[in-house]
## 1
Amino acid sequence: MQFFTSRAFPWLFLAAAVVLPLLFASDYRLFQLTMVVVYSIAVLGLNLLTGYNGQVSLGNGAFYAIGAYTTAILMDKLGLPYWATLPFSAVICAGVGFLIGLPALRLGGMYLALTTFALAVATPQLLKYKAFENYTGGVQGVVLDKPDAPFGLPLSQDQWLYLFCLAVGALLFALAMNLVRGRIGRAMRAIRDQPLAAEAMGIDIAMFKTRTFALSAMFTGVAGSLGAITIQFVAPDAFGVPLSLTFFVGMVVGGGASIGGAVMGALFIQFIPNIADEISKAAPGAVYGLLLIAFMFLLPGGLASLIRILSGKKRTA
Amino acid sequence: MDGFIHQIISGIASGGIYASVALALVMIYQATHHVNFAQGEMAMFSTYIALTLIQAGLPYWAAFCITVPVSFVIGALIQRVVMEPLSKAPVLASVGVFIGLLLTFNSVAGWIFTYTLKPFPTPFGEGKPLFGGFVSRHELGSTAITLVVLLSIWAFFRFTKLGLAMRAAAFNPVSSRLVGVPVARMLALGWGLAAGIGAIAGMMVAPVIFLDPNMMAGVLLYAFAGALLGGITNPLGAVIGGFIVGIIENLGGAYVVGTELKLTTALFIIVVVLTVKPAGLFGKTLVSRV
């Protein structure tokens, strides 16, 4: 078990993630794995906000939606190539996240959860709103083209898209890892655990909280962009409460204050509902619900903490 | 003008339902400082129980009188089994459990009763609208029921010894325990009452918006908005807030934003209240000791 917490593990994992699916996975499996990458970025965004900084958000699906729609509109209306839409979506989502983070500062714990929950409920309605219909395509949404591999690389569309998402994901994961290991990460955790002590030590709580919100929104927004390119379709009803709660479940199952937990959470939310769906249409919700309660009682640190316990390493995050 | 009056009256009717759910939320908030995200789904589930009983051949009011105590027991059980052990846990844990309950109730209801929209009977008769066509029978009846419920809850807390003990347990658990109030039992009682009130609200709203597992999502949001607007620390305020939100929702939907953005109105109210006056209109400002 020590293997999983060693320094070399992320590199080996990345290498395996690059090579194995290209050799063995069918197109449909590749699509699923691409969505795992997308979800893991989104869950990572929520981990930074909720797990590391202690701000409970039930509405990160709204940022995912903004990212997805930014990409869809830029590709569909302005004809930008898919890769060029990512910086726009990152900047726009970070900006929106910062603005939402401002009132969120005044809301402690429960209230923030409540407000972001309301945001999640309202998102599909806002996306359907008639005034934006020219851009958003209203209820119908926007259909996108699947990108080809560039420079004549001998890869199928699905293989290329998988590698592209993986590259973006690896970049964002490296960013998050460095961030939480350093001064900023310590400050984020200090605010979560002991806000008063943190403030007394000179940490600017308001600044850190709003910027963490912006960062989380940026991660989630980029995930939304990649998700839109992968699914080749955006429509309002895909971005409601269930999506936000799915991210929340992913975070809890994987482990909030953990970078690797985001990948485990993403694997969970991609594959478990498919399996449960075969039992009944209602089963994924029941599995999510019961597991949430079970994790809160038995393993509040998620699967990541299980690995930490098994490898005998002391909890540092 | 007629249309305007009609909007206000149906606003009051739906406001009564939001007020009930808001009251249920406030009762749990006061005692535990938790906002019960599953309140709406619990009410939805109770409404399905009522529908099952009615379909089994029971008269409406018999089903009503069975559903409320059953919901009470379910609510109290949830408090004892699930919430009590987590009473000292961080916010994330309680939010996680509430969301877990929400998802579980929603999917179990979908599993047992399917996701199709079902009509729910009204006990007040279909008949012609009353008072010059302004009020439907159901609106009048459900508002009356809501007012009776709210008044009896108020009387319960104001005039009975048990109500006093519950208020004491919510206000200062440690001192209450010292003078012999069984605080844990009071919390379970509060959850049971909240579930019972929610059940009544569910049965009153179901004939209007039809019954399906996602029926209460919007209602819950308006109830949140109402509770916050009135002040989540003040039950009477939350009730008034619920009525105000009902009227705002109807007038806003008819004249300002259109029906497509109704839920966004609730979000807007929540954000404005929390940023401008977090204590709400009638709540007391919370000061935390450092």
## 2
Amino acid sequence: MEKSRSELGQIVVGVSRDPLGLMGLIIVGTIVFCAIFAALIVPYDPVGMNIKDRLQGPSFSHLLGTDQLGRDTFSRVIMGGQVALKVALPAVFGAMAIGLTLGMIAGYGPKWLDNLLMLFFDTIRSFPTVMFALAVVALVGPSLQTVVVVVMATSIPTYGRVARTQTLTLRNSEFILAERSMGASMKRILGVHMLPNIIGVLAVLAAMDIPTVIALEAGLSFLGLGVKPPTPSWGALLKDGYSLIRQTPWLVVGGGLPIILATLGFTFLGESLRDVVDPKLRKQR
Amino acid sequence: MKIEWTKAAMGRRGFLKGATALGASAALPMGLANQAFASDDGVLRVRAYGDAQNMDPAHSVGVVEEEVHSSIYNKLIQYKPGREWDWQLDAASMIEQVDPTHIKFALRDDIGYTNGHGAMTAEDVKFSFERIIADATESPNKPDMGPLSHVDVTGEREGTIVLKEPFAPLWSIALPYITGNIVSKTATEAAGGRIGANPVAESGPYLRASWSPKEKTVLKRNPDWKGDAPEWDTIEILPIDDENTAEIAFEAGELDFTRVSLGSVARYRDGVPNGGKLLEYPSLYYTWLGMNLDHPKLQNQKLRQAIQHAIDVPTVLEAAYFGAVEPSTGIIAPGLAGNRAKSMVPPQANFEKAAALLAESGETNVTLTLDTLNKTTFTSAAQVIQATLAQIGITVEINVLESGAFWASGDNPDLQLVLNRFSMAPDSSYATAWFTSAQAGIWNWERFRSEEFDTLHAQASQEVDTAKRAQMYERAQDLMEESGAYRFLTHEATPVIHSSRVAPALRPDGLALLRYFGKA
């Protein structure tokens, strides 16, 4: 425990020393903080309508103005962040967990199982994510859960393939062969010896995948197929802003800026994490 | 050839100079455009919301193609520009209803087809109309011709249109709209009976000079046109789907005429850039909240009536349409026979009455879904309806659907509430046609079934007495509203803007009649 705590500390220190990593950490920290404490931060009910105050510009009472139904845009942006993370985190970590498990089984198991799982990954990957998402949403209807499931399903092959490659690389390494010769069970080899060597790479991948998922959720909401109204969402804000851009530019700013910041923040953090976790890259820098 | 690059080396100052020059040059086209806007180059530039891809009236998909067809072809009669629905002679020098099923006509003798296909004759009229109703043509516009039997040719330029039964929409839809375009028999037959993306022979005041798909359709004045000369030498029709984009193009001087979004009306009421003008026309479209009468959750009429009374139409329209439209009283717009002076349920919500009706219904913990299109206007309206129904304790979950899924909802048995909008042609029968029992589960998404309604619809389309017709359509809408399955919202509106050099010619619903566009 002590050891893992110090390793985590080293990673945080490593990321903080990199200017881009620090920036990423601050942005991501802010987004996560706002999402967790959204209910305390928002000055207005994000779904409360006040039509006579619609499409106002920024002011002290409405920092980012109001939308077409007179709802406070700032409050909707903050609550939209909660929705974005509610989709992104379960989707990415769910996909990572399933992909990791299947990838390790594919890499360590018999050849026929490897082939079967690879066929499964390739089949899923052959569907364009957005088209697949649109088809599923059209079939079962739009909801937060639908978006999470779609994103998770389409992301599994990415994690699975990386986990499989890492497992294949490790399975013939000396320390694994030594464990095997001492009669260690497959569960122990995979769980205790291989997993810690794979998880870092996947964590970096996950960090860099989060903005993609946020953008996908925003994209579906932009098409009106993400979360259901009146739930606030960055994509829905952007869509309304696009429709009403001649009336007010602030909805586009309110919907677009957080997506840009989240994308930059998670990407910076992911790249920095990769540099810290991968000693080869660290040496190159 | 050897190129010397040494002089191209650029320092910071050089870069800044270059960037400034580039910025200035970027601003130049706007200036030039504005100049072009002000000068009269004889070119009228109008926006269409889609691309006219098909030059065959039998296979026209609507207004976008009709804008081109009505300029390059002729009809016996054309819509008359103005605020009241009326028609005027076009290719016909005379047209007369001799009895409820026979219409005599005579053609002008000065209309000819291009590409050597000769003068327009009654045979062309017969061919054009009869091919619409022929099964072999598979025309989606066949219903517009109603009970057309055939056309008798009685002379080179004379004939009689024969109907199987009286058909009032002949004068408001069949003859002056899509199906009324008269194509050349010889040219169409030579083309194998079907006209494609290019016209085979034209006869109107304009000829289609060029078509760049998704970019531009260019109409040029027909040099052989003997009728009243069109005022513009050239009309460029630019397909621009998005109204915001069209507004920006207009303000940049790239367009002379466009429909604008309802959200922009208030801004344009204060002034249209470049000396242009805003014109506000009522639309024929109708928008309403429907309730599926076959759904187990909506069997209780008191519940449906509670929903009718709980929806505050003015608030919905203020939120979704920026107050630029009026509440409707039914499915038939003002100006058409059967428009009701007022609806049975007033537009304003009556929450006390709604709550009382809900209590009477005995329904508790009512949770319903509301399906709507993924357009900001409809999602805004849906959210207001959701909020107002919550006031009487009805929980609404909004299902936003993309257009493909939404328009396939007709046979969805799980449909509960639906926010819907239908387009409309200028005859009342076009509205009632979709709510007959035969249409249940097809376009009648509410599954409203009424024998009396069906009879009224059938009789009204054959009734030539306008007053009697109007009475029938009014009663038909009463029946719809009494069922509790409908809360009528609005007919929307058609706001258009035009530049100072244009005198637009529009139908009473604001749609452009390009051949009649004049110069200011």
